[in-house]
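User: quick one, fold this
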Amino acid sequence: MTQDAPLVRDVFPDLTAELVRLLEEEGERDLAICAHDLRLVAECDCGDDFCQSLRTHDHPPGRPYGPGHRMVCLLPERGLLNLDVVDRRIVYIEIIDRPALRRAVAGASPAGPGGAEGHVREV
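Assistant:
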């Protein structure tokens, strides 16, 4: 499923550019390079108006990430941007209290059932 998911940079190019810039500023060069190839596997559907989080890799709902997991907290101008990283791979982007993400393609919308933790919607 992950390979069939659209690239985040194609759906949310501004987000990808910001992630790359912030990761570079944090000295996370390898993750900055990886951010160009993230797939949009699922979007949050928790219903909270402050949340726009994205899942970028398949992960069983309700399960911890386990060994190799770390969180990278970025410092955007507004809101929170936190990344769950497993074995040098960004698997989840937590996007909280930020301006609405702008889609690159007019009318592009996610579809499908709820995803991990009941907070993301499959794309």
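User: anything notable?
Assistant: The beta strands are 42-44, 54-55, 69-74, 80-86, 89-96, 120-122.
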